Amino acid sequence: MSLSIRGYAAQSATTPVAPHTFERRDPRPDDVVIDILYCGVCHSDLHQARNEWHNSLYPMVPGHEIIGRVSAVGAEVGKFKVGDMVGVGCMVDSCQHCSSCAQGLEQYCLEGASWTYNGTDRRDGLPTFGGYSERIVVSDKFVVTISDKLDPKSAAPLLCAGITTWSPLRHWKIGKGSKVAVVGLGGLGHMGLKFAKALGADVTLFTRSPGKESEARRLGADHVVLSTDPAQMKAVAGRFDFILDTVPNPHDLNPYLATLVLDGVHCLVGQLQPLDPPVSAGAVISGRRTVTGSAIGGIAETQEMLDFCAEHGISSDIEMIDIQDINQAYERMLKSDVRYRFVIDLASLDKPA
Ligand code: NAP
Ligand code: ZN
Asked: Where does the record place the Enoyl reductase (ER) domain (predicted)?
């Protein structure tokens, strides 16, 4: 007997996200069954619901910033018990034996991680479905603990926006004395500002939106640069050790590269598409600069980030929505009209569609 689940799904690239009932597996011995309370809305949900990465599987139940309570556990689960507040991010499984998994970098699993949605369960071959739904069944290795010091609503976005910005800041050893710039003030960008500040860096926001300055300062920016103003860009030439670029679409990296110090690093976390226009070789050769990228973060690192947030009182700025409002939320996200993450209250599944 499998579980019948209410959720919201995209049925194609061109149809709105709408009510959808589907099945989840019976729990396996290592599974945790989670009654979902809240799910953040990531720009990746929109990209994938609309097949912008050309790999979408339908029906698709998006959602990979999941917070809920454990409602059952399999016989082999020791780490979680019924009633625990837990989280699930972008992955629900990986091979567990390759060199990446051995380092706790499951997101770089050499056999490919199993994504929370728009993926395939590596054990039964069935499609995975995400957090725009009432319940999820996940192997205990991919479930993280949510401290009672964290508000569960504003903790939801930490499971993707949080870890995706935390992981590169830690990998490139950002701390006191680092000069960091974050490009784009959206879901990822606002967490990037908070984390870079909390780690002790001097923090700059690059934004193309005039009017975000006071908000950016409230979120941790020491300086704000309007990226569309060449004079402001010139004024920060050769300044930054590390740029965290959260822009979701192809954009010109060259003006940003000129703002890096010798050996500076420009790290892409937003766009997946080819660089357009190309990076000028001269821009990287001249200052021995690096253009690189980073994907979410491993499970141990996700728990480390959540524990850091609990200790330092950090969480996402959120706007709660009902699941019925998801399509309008996508449109607002496209207009950068979100402060700074939508979070779905799954109790709204009981309301009429
Ligand atoms: P978001 O909330 O929509 O924020 C993106 C921000 O980028 C906007 O608020 C805007 O900030 C800026 N921006 C948008 N379009 C732009 C353009 N054409 N040119 C320049 N700036 C632009 O999105 P998000 O949820 O933070 O996600 C950002 C990207 O990261 C998405 O593509 C998502 O798929 C990706 N992502 C990657 C990973 C990973 O593991 N690498 C994980 C999660 C998400 P301003 O108004 O301040 O300019
Ligand atoms: Zn995401």
From this structure: 13-344
